């Protein structure tokens, strides 16, 4: 580009009381001027388009705390602007919001593309691949998930343009065109993130109205690896696309689920000390793979003080371990079961909270562990985070079909599974999301607790006598 303009405006102040990593949110907008006209045959080519991508330099932090930038070409794309037609002076509408860290050097790279648009067909035309159902009486429609084979969508060309058109339905069939946007299978394959939020633009309105920006935004949520949209991976916690990403401004899905459920059930624990275990990681210093490691790094004493202590151990573990598959459930289930097996007089009841992205590698072993634990004083809560399919988790939840292993059925249903995405408030209110999750995920615990006590003939201890202040005579009722 000949000239470009980058406007950076701080849109959030660092709050030292609520953030663990000092950072400020920065909003970036980009404009270009006097771009080179690569078309030597015509001064204005209506099929020429421009779009721009913003990339972040990849860095590695070594144990001594020194930040070392990798090779100069090691950039990761952070986002991409909309496409602007037929201009050498594009003003891009899409904004980029980055975390700005005062103490780090954050290199940005801006890549501008000028190219001929690709159509879904070889001749540049488009073919309808899918038409959604009509969602009535709302300006914030949510359409049902659907599946399209990759071959039918783009014939295996991951960069082929996919166009999405949005219409306002009319009973007489004269549906009003709201707007459109373009993407590709490669873009969709990034998974659920800010990268797959698109501005719906009506080209006619944009040409007539100077202040027109868009006709709304459209969020695409990829959900399945065997169809159009592959799963978003747990990934590097340092990257915003990771489900474990540690933003200084808001909790990730794992932390929200932990805090939502933990802050309620901790009130039923006398000493507020909780063992916190992780699974699916390589541990320092030798890279040993573990599915039953202490989050606080102390295998002899994995207990954390309250849910806040568990949260801190979780955050610290992400800095020291390397996330790694496969993902096995049975070790942590068996871990808690060993404790539960030693206390059968009704004085203690154990609740195991498992937070997962839906991937499970030891299904048969997990079933057997659950069947074995069904006769013990324990319950298992599984919260699924992210956009994955949770068929395996639903199978572990015995609401409809009692779980079995090797022909032996569980004595009682001890598993409750919920996908967190079903409880996320669409206005972005995380407090409400967490409250909804906790309410539903804990709904079955009382009945599971009572079913164990009743089948064992365990009755509540007599209520203690009412408290009498010192110096006051005891009251006797006749």
Short description:
The chain has helices spanning 150-154, 185-188, 203-208, 253-265, 306-320, 330-341, 363-373, 391-396, 430-441, 445-455, and strands at residues 3-10, 24-33, 49-57, 59-61, 67-69, 75-80, 84-85, 96-100, 108-115, 161-168, 176-184, 197-199, 217-219, 273-275, 277-278, 281-283, 288-290, 293-294, 303-305, 322-323, 350-356, 378-384, 404-405, 408-409, 415-419.
What structural keywords apply?
single chain, 478 residues, alpha+beta, Rossmann fold, 25 strands, elongated, disordered C terminus
* DSSP summary, beta strand count: 25
With helices defined by DSSP (H or I, 4 residues minimum), what is the helix count?
Answer: 10
Largest sheet: 4 strands, antiparallel
Structural class: alpha+beta
Q: How large, in whole angstroms, is the Cα Rg?
A: 27 Å
- Outline: elongated
Query: Whole-number average pLDDT?
Result: 75
CATH first level of the largest domain = Alpha Beta
CATH architecture of the largest domain: 3-Layer(aba) Sandwich
Low-confidence region ranges: 10-22, 40-48, 57-73, 223-233, 472-478
Stated plainly, the CATH topology of the largest domain is called Rossmann fold
- Residues in helix, %: 10-25%
Q: State the end-to-end distance.
A: 95 Å
As for the number of domains, it is 3
**Fraction in beta strands:** 15-25%
How would you characterize this protein structure?
- Strands 3, 6, 7 and 9 form a four-stranded antiparallel sheet that branches. A three-stranded antiparallel sheet has the order 1-2-8, with no helix packed on it.
- Mean pLDDT is 75; it is low at 10-22, 40-48, 57-73, 223-233 and 472-478.
- With 478 residues, it is of the alpha+beta class.
- It is elongated and about 80 Å long.
- The protein is 20% helix and 25% strand.
- It folds into three domains: 1-116, no CATH class; 118-230, no CATH class; 253-455, Rossmann fold, CATH 3.40.50.
- It has helices at 150-154, 185-188, 203-208, 253-265, 306-320, 330-341, 363-373, 391-396, 430-441, 445-455; strands at 3-10, 24-33, 49-57, 59-61, 67-69, 75-80, 84-85, 96-100, 108-115, 161-168, 176-184, 197-199, 217-219, 273-275, 277-278, 281-283, 288-290, 293-294, 303-305, 322-323, 350-356, 378-384, 404-405, 408-409, 415-419.
- α7 (363-373) links the parallel β21 and β22 (378-384).
- The protein is built from ten helices and 25 strands.
- One of its GO terms (cellular component) is plasma membrane.
- Residues 461-472 have a biased composition (Pro residues).
